[in-house]
Fold:
Amino acid sequence: LDCETRTRLLQNLLGIISDKYFALDRRIELLMQHSLRARVLHYLTHDAQRTPDDSLLVPFTRAAWAQYLGCDRTALCRELGRMQKDGVLRMEKRRFWLTPSAPRS
Structure:
């Protein structure tokens, strides 16, 4: 391998390692939240994909999202229902809107 190829390879490797580090750091920060509600809010405010219509898109199924949050799917669905009833968020399938009065973690 020539010098330019090695440099590019090392830069790519460093980029992959740093992306993985920051993803794991975000996950640890999320799992340190004390309640499921706090974990959901943390995920929505920090990691969910923002869309042009000011909504937040969760790229997981409910089961996969629950596993990522470290809880049971039924507990996640129950908490999302409570949060919607309490006026913290509005949801349509995988798309969420936080209300202005929603606490930000």
Remarks:
- The radius of gyration is 18 Å.
- The chain has four helices and four strands.
